[in-house]
Each structure stands twice: as C-alpha cells, then as structure tokens.
Request: fold
Amino acid sequence: MLQSGKFMSEPVAPPRQQFPQLLDVLASNQWQWYAALNTAILVLLPFLYLGIARISIALGHDIAPFGPVFGDPAYYYKWVSRLFFGDENQVLAYPYPPLSLVLLTAPRVLATSLSRYVVLFAAEMALLNALILALIIRTCRESSMDSTSPLRWYTACMPCLGLLVLWRFDIAVALLTFWGCVEWRRRPVLASSIFAAGTLVKVVPVLAFCVLLAQAVRQRANWKLAARAVTVFAVLCVVATIVWLAAVGIEAGSGMLLHAHRGLEVGSTYASALMVWGKATGEPVSVDYNPACLCAEITTLGPAAQLMTTASTFILAGAFVWFAIWAIRGKLDDPFLSVSAALMLACTTFKVLSPQYLIWLPPFLAVLRGPGASRIRAAFLAACVLTSVLYSSAFSSLTDMEDWAVAGLVLRNGLLVYCCVKLLRQPGRPDPAIPVR
Reply:
C-alpha cells in the first residue's frame, strides 16, 4: 500500500520528526562547518597544483601541466559561445544532453573571458558540492545515523577529486542522482522529476531510476504511483529533448551520438588489461587523444584490441543481466547500496572510464552501512588517490605506457573492481526510515 506518498508495504507512516527539512539542515552549524571546509579545500587545490607545476618547471620537469586540468571548461566556453552568443567559429556539435547547458551557460552570462569563466564555473560546482553535504546530513538524520564519519570520509575525497569537481560538471550528476535517491524514499514522483533532470544533464541517473523502480516493483509497491513516476520521467525527458532539437537543430543535437562510437578509453578496465597484454606479448598498443570526446583512447588495431572492444559490449550487457538477477533475488532493500553497486558496475564494465566518473560514487558510499562498508570506502579512497596521480603528473607517462604508470592504472582499476564485488556481496540492510515486509 501507499501512504503519505511513500513506497511501502505497511500503512503506518513514520513519525514526522524522522524527516528533517533540507532548509533546517542548511541552517545547522554542522553543514556550515563542513561546507566551509570543503569549499576551502576546493579553493586551495588549484593554487597548490599551480605551485607544484611552477616548481616542477623550474626544476626542468613539467610533472603537473596545469592547462589540461581546465581543458574541459575551455570547451564548455566555446560550445556555449557558439550556441548562444553567435560565435560562428566555435564547435558546432554539442555532445551532452540539453539541460547540461544550463550549468555551462550560467557562468558564461557573467564572464567575458575564458579565465573569468573558469573561476565562475568552479564556484558553481563548489556550490553544488556543498548541497551534496546537506543531503548526506539529511540522509543520516532520517536513518538515525551519525553523520560525522560520512562527512569526514566525503571530505577526505576532496583533495583527490577536487580539481575534477571544480572543472567538470559531474558533481551536478552526483547531486541529482543522490537527491533523487533520497527523495524516492518518500516522494517517488518528485524523485522521478529529479532523475529526469539528471538524465538531461548526463544519462547516468536513468540507471539509478531503473534500479529504484525495480525495488518498488519487487516490494509490490503502489502500481499506480509507480506508473506515474515512469510517466513523469519519460514525459520530461522526451519533451525536453524535442524542445532542444527544435531550438538548436539536428546538427547540434546529434553531438550526443558520438559517445556510441567511442573506443576504449585509456582509463577503462579493458584498456588496462590490453596494456598488460601488450607488455606481456609484445603486441603494440598505442594511445592517442580523441578531440571529439576530449579523452585519450586505445587506437591499436591488433586482434587483441579488436577482441577487447567487441567483448566490452557483451561484458557490459552480461553484467547488467546478472545485476537484474541479483536485484530480483532481493538485494535491493537498501537503495543506496543498490544504486552504488549499479554505478560501480557501470564504471568497471563500460568501455569508457573517465576520471570524473568517480565523482558519482562518494555521496552513496558515504552513507553506506554494513560490516564491509568501511573496507569499500577505504579501497575507493585509495582508487581516488591513484586517479589524482595518474591523471595529473603521470598522465603523459600513462599515455606513453611506462611500466610504473600502467601498474598504477591496473591497481586503480583493480581497487574499483574490488569495490564492485564487495558492493554486490554486501548484505542488504533495509533503511530504518522505510518500513518493509
């Protein structure tokens, strides 16, 4: 049955005080302290990185090239300038869903130069990161958890992922996916709207929406409300896409299709396996930069690379068929566990694993409960540390396939696979804020 807008199997509503309002959290000293701390870390990181870069250049070793770090905002600036400000010399095709343009356009309205745009874009992302902290606190309070440890662990991720948080918009994807998961527990129709908004920024939140919808169906929730949630999600996505294509034309909108033709991204699990195979057998493996997707990809045309590229599609499909079976067997009582497992499975089995994809996971892992949750968080934090090294000072070594860089990538991906396996083996624990049978 459904009562008070919640998916649940019993008609008894939880006490009102279990569900603190977000505005109350924002007014709390705890949120203000951690928001200030996280923001301070994000503000200091670029200066620290720039200092390391200048010292390394002075020593004759450019180990921390600063330019590529904010290379993506430079493209954002060009795309927005081309689409809305009439600069005909800029990029035509836009490779992301339409709502992401809201995030990219807001700082462009106030910026007259790239340098100012980079600063304003970073400020926007820092604000979204602070909102995630508020949602973590709210989630912990609703579930009668102490929020101190989750907030400390999330803050510990910032030095590793901070530059990606500032100059990629994946923190918005993490916010909308996590927020939708939080709201789903009480207001699934509102949550479906949030998931739709997230999908229109980047398609990842649709995965979380499907997982939680499967949870509602398995628990025999209110079918009419489930149908309303699906309808709201579908209508918002379809209408927004039609309006977008009508506004910018098929040429600009078709840029999203380029992701379907991408090769093995250099950070993916398959790429690291292929690098090890190449070193073990002597088969040449080359890495080149793909400007269409702003990433480095494996470009080798050897039999092993072709087999790996083909196999990646079947491995991804097989992994999610297995995940569906795992879900049907009743492992979906904890929504944060199920969504984090789905996201980690996507990261480890998809042929593209850009470093900013790791930003999706910390909010979910921070509130993860269970006997193995601490080990998962420790392994993921170690993976973040390796990512920050591999995609800054060691990236040229990685693309040149130096032994130590390849070993670091293999270790990083091994840690992510470990986290994925542990999440799938983690015993599901129903959220105490949601009565279940």
Summary: Residues 2-9+17-425 form one domain. The chain has one domain: 2-9+17-425. Residues 325 and 331 are 9 Å apart (CA to CA). The first strand starts at residue 2 and ends at 3.
